Amino acid sequence: MYKTACPACGAEVQFKSAGSVMAVCAFCRSTLLREADAVRNIGRMSEVIEDHTRIQITTSGEYEGKQFGVVGRIQLKYADGFWNEWYVMFDDGSAGWLSDGSGQYVMTLPGGTPSKAPPFEAIKPGAVIPWDGKRFTATDVRTAQCVAGEGELPFQVGPGWQARVADFRSDDRFLTLDYSEGETPQVFLGSAVTLEALKCQLLRSEDQVADTAGKLKGKADTLECPNCGSGIDYAPGKADHLICPSCHAEVAANAGQAEVLKKHDELEQAVTSLQLGDTGTLDGLKWQVIGLMRCQEFGSDEHSVWTEYLLFNAYSGFLWLVETDEKWTRTVVLNTLPEDRASSARFGGKNYTKQWDYGSEVIYAAGAFNWRVSIGNQTRITDYQGPDGTLSKEATAEEITWSLSTNINPDVVAKAFGKAAETVAKAGAAGEPSPLGGFAKVASAILIFLNIGNIFRGSMGALIFTALALLLLWLPVWMSGVSSGSSDNSDSDDGDDE
């Protein structure tokens, strides 16, 4: 271990790893560059944005049989969000990176320099490359800016430093090609992990989060919209891309300051079953609705509309509840990659059959999100139906994500959030009307118009004929509604016991 006094404030600065070339003074934020046995102050590093991560410098754990400790962090920001990269040092002197973004974690270790790799500009989400006997699929390709750092790091970063990275996945295995230092990438190999599987210790407590971020994890704060002055409820640090529910201005919250990013035309206020700030208990955990958005289908003959609610829990991260005109589902973003076979997919040793391929467009959004949501955002979605629910592949120009959705009984949702059963029983009021119901309405109007004269003249035959015809028209509609409700209930009775 190398120790020195900070040339700016005199506080002790430690370099725990022999491979660390840079450290950030914890007291004055000066960035110290190590040169042989001396250090040089190269300026101040920005404070990290406290995003309610459970990890901190001094957190320790175990990975692949080796003990590690967290010694540094850089924070990387892109156009629609940010993530943390934690620099970890193992007990055998080797080092690695623990990636932390949106409640998902990946541990990677240096894998050398490849003899041949595609140019960064040529890599697109969905591209497949062979590596170490496996086929890896590109799931995230982007350029990010280093905006903050703390602790010690193995290379020099500062204002203007860019990370050009392409992330690939194969099941739970992870491959990163890092082009930050030039056209020949550095390779990092690892796997998706959880803090529990890493046996992490010295994670941040609720009180520590309160001291640094100002609020307990998951507890909402209120920010004044700089465009219209309305209050916006949000979870400080964890979800900093906000949309004002009153004027629909996009707002970035940074260290308590708000900045209008883009103002949209006034939209009709959406009426939703759940509202921002609602709290409910599912699986014994307390969740809070921090964001909601309404989406519509495009690129097909269907014009479905549905509502997605973003829920947040302090230690479990994010969960989605989705309300359609047919049912409610709970959706979890996957940290492992299903095997995509075009017409089918395989996940968890089970097969899923391709059902739908369509586009999704955001038409309304309010609240806080862990990435930047804009009205008009479009995503290509492919749904696969299988034994454990619906696998969904969502693709944009920068990334591919997978999620798994399972049905949940509307009564469970109502009970969890303290709502009247009837407010959520008819899921997705914004959805398209039933085709059977639409036909029945038109046919009924024509039937009554043609027979109303005879009925008023007292014709019993016309009255009986009209009544029987109306019954035959509407019986399929009523039976369809009963069947749909029964199906939802039978599929979802165990939704709260997952």
UniProtKB/TrEMBL annotation:
<keyword id="KW-1133">Transmembrane helix</keyword>
<protein>
    <submittedName>
        <fullName>DUF4178 domain-containing protein</fullName>
    </submittedName>
</protein>
<dbReference type="InterPro" id="IPR025235">
    <property type="entry name" value="DUF4178"/>
</dbReference>
<feature type="domain" description="DUF4178">
    <location>
        <begin position="60"/>
        <end position="193"/>
    </location>
</feature>
<keyword id="KW-0812">Transmembrane</keyword>
<feature type="transmembrane region" description="Helical">
    <location>
        <begin position="436"/>
        <end position="453"/>
    </location>
</feature>
<dbReference type="Pfam" id="PF13785">
    <property type="entry name" value="DUF4178"/>
</dbReference>
<keyword id="KW-0472">Membrane</keyword>
<feature type="transmembrane region" description="Helical">
    <location>
        <begin position="460"/>
        <end position="479"/>
    </location>
</feature>
<feature type="domain" description="DUF4178">
    <location>
        <begin position="275"/>
        <end position="410"/>
    </location>
</feature>
